[in-house]
Automatic annotation (TrEMBL), chains A, B:
One of its GO terms (molecular function) is transcription cis-regulatory region binding. CDD domains: HTH_LacI, PBP1_LacI-like. The lineage of its organism: Bacteria, Bacillati, Actinomycetota, Actinomycetes, Pseudonocardiales. The keyword Cytoplasm does not apply. Keywords: DNA-binding, Transcription, Transcription regulation. It comes from the Bacteria. Signal peptide: none annotated. InterPro entries: HTH_LacI (IPR000843), LacI/GalR-like_sensor (IPR046335), Lambda_DNA-bd_dom_sf (IPR010982), Peripla_BP_I (IPR028082). SMART domains: HTH_LACI. Residues 5-60 form the HTH lacI-type domain. This is Transcriptional regulator, LacI family. It holds the Pfam family LacI.
Amino acid sequence: MAGRPTLAAVAAAAGVSPSTASLAFSGSSRVAPHTRDRVLAAAQRLGYPGPDPVAASLRRGRTGVIGAFIGERLLYAFRDPHAITLLDGISEVLGAHGAGLLLLAGDAGRPSAEQIARLPLDAAVFATCGLEDDPAIPLLRRRGVPLVGVEGPVGTDVLIDIDDFGGSRELARHVHDLGHRRVEVIAMPLRLDGTTGPVSGARRARTHYRDVRRRLAGVEDVFGSVPIHETASNSVADGLAAGRAVLGVPAERRPTAVIAQSDVLAAGVLQAAAELGLRVPEDVSITGFDGADLHWLGDTRLTTVEQPTAEKGRAAARAAMALVAGDRPQDVLLPISLRIGTTTGPAPRGANGHR
Amino acid sequence: MAGRPTLAAVAAAAGVSPSTASLAFSGSSRVAPHTRDRVLAAAQRLGYPGPDPVAASLRRGRTGVIGAFIGERLLYAFRDPHAITLLDGISEVLGAHGAGLLLLAGDAGRPSAEQIARLPLDAAVFATCGLEDDPAIPLLRRRGVPLVGVEGPVGTDVLIDIDDFGGSRELARHVHDLGHRRVEVIAMPLRLDGTTGPVSGARRARTHYRDVRRRLAGVEDVFGSVPIHETASNSVADGLAAGRAVLGVPAERRPTAVIAQSDVLAAGVLQAAAELGLRVPEDVSITGFDGADLHWLGDTRLTTVEQPTAEKGRAAARAAMALVAGDRPQDVLLPISLRIGTTTGPAPRGANGHR
DNA sequence: AGCGAGTGTCGAATCGATTCGATGGGGAGG
DNA sequence: CCTCCCCATCGAATCGATTCGACACTCGCT
């Protein structure tokens, strides 16, 4: 009688069997109100805090915990409003189901195998990491953990997706229609190795992230091969650095439009343009992707591809809950739309000469 | 033999007892290398993914999951770089220990009691919610879950704290020394009821958040009673709204200095000042609190009180791990320091008349 | 009064691993 | 050659609840 009271102790105190006590706590209608009250009173008296979640999980086979993988370290991932909104959507649905959200981030890139093996999970969502062959996937798969992928990884049970290619192409066409011919793409990391700068064809071909690859393809579908500048991570700071590199060149070599692969990167490029005294969109057009809420931009409205980020999160969470329940939910393809803002305009005259 | 293989099945296949197989997986030195290899080979052969975490948790009495309470909904909490940095610090330490971070947010303000009762937790950190008497605290306490508080809640086992009062007072003194006499505070929510606008004495006295209260007291220690404008949440948007209200009045009633209770709010006030054509710091001085990394401010360096946010998170996580291990860690008081930036300057002449 | 239906409670098996104390065998020392 | 000790392995209890099928009792109907 040293430790915390158990359900058995409560049952004994209430003069019922453990099974009845359990029924009383689970709110089953098969127990008489009178009996339930007696059990609850006994629990109150003994200071019993309710059934032990771990024991219940073992027996039930479900823990009520859904894991969310974020490719990077928390600090970096959450600099991105898009990632936060996505996670908020997930959290919203999970909360409504009484489930918990377990964050899986890594010190050095991703959660350790040990961590994955030791944590109780009913299902996992690959949220902000489009790594196509994340090593965690087979690990979890072997453990029988249902997997939901968001816009990226392969080998999951369900995929929540958007038309990256189509959206990117539509955006590129808009830029093309404005007369731009010298464009440059500022890309999110193509692989997880910290490389930055101009991207060679070989590296381009070995792009590790599906969303990155598809967005590139959309642009290339319109412009053909375009110069790509890779960033170390998807952040304003890296967008700024890339923007400086791409825009800080003699005017005749400077692109007239910069297509950033995310709004966060675009925000950095906007900063770089401001630093260099370039007017947007008169001197240079800048586009993003995501339709994130960049509150600090003030009046500037970024031309971007808007995706229903929160809904993407919700859909992912719903799919995860469905998988846990044993259903086989459908893949989801969410609509996206071009949003034309104030950061794109006609290409400057005479700027479209040779390159 | 239908479901996933169990440790017992592996043991049988390897020709050893379950206990030995368990030892082999836990990496105990008490098992012969030869035997371990045999067990591991059998596991490989059967596709055994390693010991079930839930069963292990039940037996061990520990789940390896630490909960983090964030007062608000994810979306709002993570708009604040300070909150993210704090959580990153927590995540860093937990990751190093192979523990997981379970996010506890709420649709409507906080996690439901049901959720708290059902989730497996070894300990919990009250991270970004300074609510002094959060109803979750007694709930968890009854369940025997060790609690760590960050700068706020009472009734936890360990408190990770900073000197809000001292820091705020030092900041206020700096403002006072610059000659400002007409100052106004823009406060984070005093209570969780969505009220905004000027704060009455009665409401001031019923401040629910400890950090808010202490920061107020620091200012009042220097300036005496000052007008307070309460915001609906700690966000740039609400800071902007408050800034408009406070600064958008005739110059003779306008404060010469605005003391915002967080950097995020201050960022909003800066925006409001810009909108109203007020120069900072010539026309109005603006201060923040936290020392967050507001990358979008460009050259503007906010005068603020800098706190070691990441270290606060790490300290909280270390305390949580220590509590789980059965230790009784000490409370932690972290140092803070005034950081004078470019947003404070001498009070405009002749502005300090009657109010 | 007898029978069937329905309701409330109970027993016992089960979820899957961990761990302590016991046991057996082999090697070293006398 | 015998004994003592140590090390690797094993048995069995345990963690705390859930759940299925069985059982007893009551009520209603004929």
